[in-house]
Amino acid sequence: MSRSVLVTGGNRGIGRAIAQAFLDQGDKVAVTTRDGGAPEGALDVRCDITDQEQVDAAFKLIEAEHGPVEVLVANAGVTRDTLLLRMSEDDWDSVIATNLTGTFRVAKRAAKGMLRLRRGRIILISSVVALLGSPGQVNYAASKAGLVGMARSMARELGSRSITTNVVAPGFVATDMTDVLPDEQKAAYQSQIPLGRFADVADVAGAVTWLAGDGAAYVTGAVIPVDGGLGMGH
């Protein structure tokens, strides 16, 4: 059965691959972007998740076109990398506002419809650095670690209504950003990964669609690493 799926930040990279994977399954997919560029066949909704009014307007449009959101993939995120002593208040606030508070905003709004339906899947996209840590990413790591506590609290609150909440934590993923890294730097990163390669965006999308599918109906509050073993044990 075709479901109403929302992927935030679904115009490029991991988010776009996730949106495409749901489209390929025949789902009705809406994608929020700031500047457009959703995959063909998806409902392209302009929305800055740091703005509550834009979030409310986006959900009204999606519900009118596709019905209540049954699967939410909270993927939208930003980075403002710099070392701790150089990190400004704005560097901190902007990353927390999008990655953590913005995710809270869309999850809260999606949960309202799911509670009425008495079913739903919420999947938050975190990162291996959430628990492994990363120099120069104090703000980003904090925001992504916060998603784990958020997801597990929601799993406990919403589980009685057949709503699951889980986290996917990707490691290094082959994207346009990693393609431009010097070969020596890529080799150094890959040497830390037991599987010896960066993830493909399809690897992450596969974990997300599994969590949203029938096979994961009894999985909630989990953190699923898609990192080639980089953060194992975390």
From TrEMBL:
- SMART domains according to UniProt: PKS_KR (SM00822)
The protein's UniProt keywords, in alphabetical order, are: Oxidoreductase
Which Pfam family is one of those matched by this entry?
A: adh_short_C2
Entries under InterPro entries matching the protein: KR_dom, NAD(P)-bd_dom_sf, Sc_DH/Rdtase_CS, SDR_fam
Ketoreductase domain segment(s): 3-176
Q: Which SUPFAM superfamilies match?
A: NAD(P)-binding Rossmann-fold domains
**Claim: Oxidoreductase is one of the keywords in the record:** yes
Keyword Oxidoreductase set for record: yes
Enzyme class label: oxidoreductase
Q: What is its EC number?
A: 1.1.1.100
> What domain of life does the UniProt record list for this protein's source?
Bacteria
Q: Which GO terms describe its molecular function?
A: 3-oxoacyl-[acyl-carrier-protein] reductase (NADPH) activity
Family the UniProt entry places it in: Belongs to the short-chain dehydrogenases/reductases (SDR) family.
Record's protein name: 3-oxoacyl-[acyl-carrier protein] reductase
